[in-house]
Please model this.
Amino acid sequence: MKKLNYNMNYFKKFGLIILLITINSSSLFSQEDNYNSEHFGNKSILLSGTVTGSVTDLGLTYYNPARIALVENAIFSINAKAYQYNRLSLKNTVGYNTKLNSSKFGGVPSMLAGTFKIKWLKNHHFAYSFITKSRDKFDISYDTEIQSGDILDDIDGVEKYVGKLKLGSRHTDEWFGLTWGKLITKNFSIGVSSYLSIYNFNANSQTTFSVLEESQDVDFYFNSFSISHESYGLFWKVGFAWKLPKINFGLNIDLPYLEIYENGKFNYQEALSGISNQDDIFKYADLEEIDSNRKVPLGISIGAGVPIGKSTLHLKIDWHNNLESYDRLAIPDIEDGTEEVKSFYFKSTLQSVINFGAGIEIFINDKYKLFSSFSTDYSAANKNANIFDLIGDNENDVDLNLDFFQVGFGIDISLKWADLILGTTYSNGTTKFSQKIDFPGVNSNANEADKLTKFGITRWRGIIGMKIPVFGMNLEVK
Model:
């Protein structure tokens, strides 16, 4: 019998690493551990969300609901139409000097909001809002092409092999909300926004590995994973706003997420054929309605709007609490009729983070206003790679934090028939980690420094919006 135990273990370990890459990179792709990746409201987008104390559009339902009692003529709003170019890159993931890329051009998350009154509740202000909080989709793949040589240990002679890898991620989070606000004194108001969140996360991977030995025997390995996480729940935002002669000030509290419904799914397939009858493996598990958890911690945002003549300086700082390690999916042990039991872990741990930003709204004249802004979006992910316990090597734990820096530029043009808003935003984040997939032979010429996986996301957005007077009210449209 051929001595191929090493190779069978290699294939099995390779499959576990694929699961890790699927779970971790999918989490990164969706930016779930970043709190400021999306912005809402035409001006608020160009100001990079630095408007907790000074928001003037209906983005206030998200940034500070108390501002609804202080802002005049905030009647109906649709986010400016925005398109984005999103590029994801992974370098040295499957070996030295290898690259996995995914580029996508399309629309971005948006907001629809409007205000309404209740006659018997005087001095109370109300709004509704529909927000696409997240909508991410990524697909990346890698093909080794045909490789030849004496590459695999314990297989005599020259082999030919080809390996293929596909990774996919889907993530949506739709919010449906109501906002209430009331003026307590002439210069002070309070408000509350309540949102129903409908959240869906899916990730999948598929790997094939084929080997042709010198003896013309063929070895084949197949591995696939898919995970699904569904959650319905409530978010609350409690806001306070002060309007003073020389400054506008705001405080917004994001209460922890309250989960109402949850569901998780996990599918796993693994097969190894051609080595020998006793070494062949076939494993399959399709698990539905497994326990899952979605947790979002407490957050506090403080902001100010400082008038400088007819211009305004916007400032913001926010803090989000940490979360101890918890199971996002409680995947049970998988038994396949043998003595071997497979255990999978899908955990999350979040650290506390502080973000800050500043924006400037420059008054040129009654026709033109310019916008410029900068903000941070630090990741809260803290050793999300606890699931690297799958391969039993804690030294391979990596910090997958992906920190973003965002800038925005734009102009507001007042025409006789409409206000036109034009602008662009840019964000970029990169990180490095040591865990990777080793295709045989691909990494043979690399030193330790070259074996770091480099991960990055770059995003450009172009924004076009109009505010048109319709029947006595201002209507902001795409």
In short: Residues 257 and 295 are 6 Å apart (CA to CA). The longest strand covers residues 159-185. Residues 5-30 form the longest helix (26 residues).
